Amino acid sequence: MSETNVYVAYKGNSYLFGGNAPYVEEMYEKYLENPGSVPDNWRGYFDALQHVPAVDGTDARDVPHQPVINAFAERAKQGGTKVVMAAGADSDLGRKRVAVQQLIAAYRNVGCRWADLDPLKRTERENIPELDPSFYGFTDADFETVFNTSNTYFGKEVMSLRDLINALRETYCSSVGAEYMFISDQAQKRWWQEKLESIRSKPSFNAEKKKHILDRLTAAEGLERFLHTKYVGQKRFSLEGGESFIAAMDELIQQAGAQGVQEIVIGMAHRGRLNVLVNTLGKMPKDLFAEFDHTAPEDLPAGDVKYHQGFSSDVTTPGGPVHLSLAFNPSHLEIVNPVVEGSVRARMDRRGDPLGKQVLPVLVHGDAAFAGQGVNQETLALAATRGYTTGGTVHLIINNQIGFTTSDPRDLRSTLYCTDIVKGVESPVLHVNGDDPEAVVLATQLALEYRMTFRKDVVVDIICFRKLGHNEQDTPSLTQPLMYKKIAQHPGTRKLYADKLAAQGLGEALGDDMVKAYRAAMDAGKHTVDPVLTNFKSKYSVDWSPFLGKKWTDQADTAIPLAEWKRLAEKITTIPATVTPHQLLKKVYDDRAAMGRGEINVDWGMGEHMAFASLVASGYPVRLSGEDCGRGTFTHRHAVIHDQNREKWNEGTYVPLQNVGEGQAPFVVIDSILSEEAVLGFEYGYAGSDPNTLVVWEAQFGDFANGAQVVIDQFIASGEVKWGRANGLTLMLPHGYEGQGPEHSSARVERFMQLAADTNMQICQPTTASQIFHLLRRQMVRNLRKPLVIFTPKSLLRNKDATSPLSEFTKGGFQTVIPEQNEAVIKKADKVKRVICCSGKVYYDLVKKREEKGADDVAIIRVEQLYPFPHKVFGAELKRFPNATDIVWCQDEPQNQGAWFFVQHQVHENMLEGQKLGYAGRAASASPAVGYAHLHQDQQKALIEAAFAKLKGFILTK
User: Fold this and answer.
1) Backbone angles phi, psi at 889, to 5 degrees
2) Contact 170, 200 (CB under 8 A)
């Protein structure tokens, strides 16, 4: 078929014109402006017009645009509103040409569903009609017909239908199944088409590359078999069946280094983790064996199992040294993912690398966990947002097709692929057969190149199998007999690849020699990664030594000089003339200016702002994130001023704390997406990689921490005693019983108190503006890094009784216990019969009731730091009232919640002989609070009365 005949086929396609002419005209105009803006089938049609001779013999590509459009219009006039179907061969050829474009699009869209991806070959190829030429009316007679294929990247302008189908199947239906057509950006789709179609998804590695791949497969299999025979029955969560993953990791690191990456942070759960530690990061095998032999040093209060351990090393790459960090990981599968992303973002910020050119996050998943764990969706949702982007993550899935041993494939997930969740953020996916290690390496190369080019997440789904059970004590054939019959017959990926290389003439004994060499290295306990650098240190590495091994101290020099106070106050309360604030906000800033001058007491918002301002002025960056933290859920903060006269939604904001002075440290405030688990994990990871930044996560309401409880339990509370990882993350959790119902009253104080041990964190409930100022500053100026949990108030944000005079900021510090403040009570200390101890907002209710009753024989003590409990200061305060017989703990929360169960023993320890301890608060409840306003008020009134009434119920006597 000549090119002219191809053109005639189009020319005769009159059903494309007629009443459809306006549509065709519009489509052609779009094509002329941008060929990538029209659907593939139309682009192919118009491409064909540009590659064939015109009727007059001239080159069609030289025809002016308007005559072509006029020709469409003329056809429309001739055809009227009726679609005229031309008869004969020309019309049939035109229909087939369009069908060819549809066939190409079908393979690009769903060709992966015919790809050869399963090493176990358990299922037959599904029926997908649109991948069959007969679906479009093609017969055997058409297979030698030549069609224009200029919209493909197979290297030919025209191809026979037979050659085209072969090329499409080689590209999209071999060992690599690509999914990318759901991406809306045409440039990215064209990128994938060119990369895949130009090589038909087949790598062309030289002999040395192939030998190296075999070496990595040998290492992966060799470690597992060594451990299997040496440590029979011990849990290790074997990688056998997924050995190609180690080849992928090796390629990823080497290619990333070649492209300028200098740090890679890896997050993964337990499957294959020991293999990564030894064969990727270069952990000495003898050190791993020591852990199996239970002879490893145990210098942590708790420690953790070997397949949760992190590690770091430096390896050589073609681009220079690359620092590798494997994050410590609990058993909660995917929860490490946002922690890794936060760690990467901290490293990017430290390097001044906003695009992530130098730092790369790599996340390794299991198939069932990737589809099933909600934290993955939350973490993906962060990927393109300003405060959380890391320049794209490379995701590797060890897809052993079973999830967990007892899962029935029908119950494994509700989507076709485990990767389908990434389609929401338009991340491309390469499914690849784990038994084709060269294809796995190619897919990894392409994934990294895509990430470095477009700064987006990308997924490599390595479809393999799991030779052993979920752990080495499991018998999977009990519930998966068919799968494990297939696995028992499988010779192993390494053996298959070694045989393939032998068939290519690369040496019959090559595979056996590698096996022997690796076994010898294992027996000697030597490195299996060559070379690992032992004395390299990057200028961007962080020195944690000033913060490690320090004994707990409550003391810190947090006051600032009066002159500095006034300078900072003026800076953060001055709004440029070019910015028009809301009238309500103008009043807030006018009041803050007066507070800065000492004309009125300082409120909570100003105390907080001055803490941040003084820190950034001293060189401590501040990062504040949460769902409403720019304004503050209770509109107390207003860290971001929105110009009321701005013309564009993405312009016209002013952040005073970013304008404190020349050379100040960064202040970053981020209104996060509606996520708790991923965002808190991200901030934990950030704080864990930067001890010199105050990192704060604020919950919109304190109970929102419920959605992040895994991060609190498995990282914040226990990370130091399990893994020796210090962290200075600060949590602000609004807390207070003010009639807002069960979910918006309690930040679940009791949960944090239950987790408090081993001096693992600080739990505080400040009640004045000066206290939050000193507490936030103390978190940074001390040479100590512990997580800080602050139960912040709601009503106290505007309560004048909670304001502080300027003098409390220029002297003193954070008070772990605020003693009795009433002078009349202090003067009659020996007359005091009752001491009420409390924490938080209830203090102000108690003071008001004491005034009403005229009870100057009652002292009230505020405990502002619940943990570590300030025994020395608290005990000294109790001794000021030696004749008190009753000690009462009063709280807003129900008796089975709040601090009561934790604090009763702390108070009892400091009581004098003969004193009795009682409780005043709400009765035990299954709900944090009531939902009826009148019932709340009745309860509040009753608990305040009970604090002054005769002790009853539970009484603990010293």
Assistant:
1) -95, 120
2) yes
Q: Taking the model in full, what pTM does it have?
A: 0.89
In 786-883, where does DSSP find H-type helix? 807-810, 823-827, 842-853, 871-879
Give CATH for domain 562-810: 3.40.50.12470
Residue range 818-957, CATH number: 3.40.50.11610
| b/e burial code for range 859-877 (CB count within 10 A of at least 16 → b) | bbbbbbbbbbbbeebbbeb
- Whole-number Å distance between alpha carbons of 697 and 681: 10
Nearest to 324 by CA among 541, 546, 543: 541
Is residue 365 within 8 A of residue 290, CB to CB? The reply is no
The encoded tokens of residue 755 equal 């987790």
pLDDT tens figures, 549-588 = 888 999 999 999 999 999 999 999 999 999 999 999 999 9
562-810 shares the fold of 234-469+479-495: yes
- Are 486 and 493 in contact by the 8 Å Cβ rule? The answer is no
User: What are the pLDDT digits (tens) for 63-115?
Assistant: 445 555 555 444 444 443 333 333 445 678 888 999 999 999 999 999 999 99
For the stretch 437-454, pLDDT in tens is 999 999 999 999 999 999
The number of helix segments (H) and strand segments (E) in the chain equals 32, 26
Closest CA to 45 of 19, 9, 92: 9
Looking at the domain that runs over 234-469+479-495, which CATH code has it been given? Answer: 3.40.50.970
Q: Yes or no: say if 696 and 623 are a contact pair by the CB < 8 Å rule.
A: yes
3-class state of residue 533 by DSSP: strand
* Angle, in degrees to the nearest 10, between helices 900-910 and 871-879: 60
Paired strand residues for 533: 314
Domain ranges across the chain: 3-197, 234-469+479-495, 562-810, 818-957
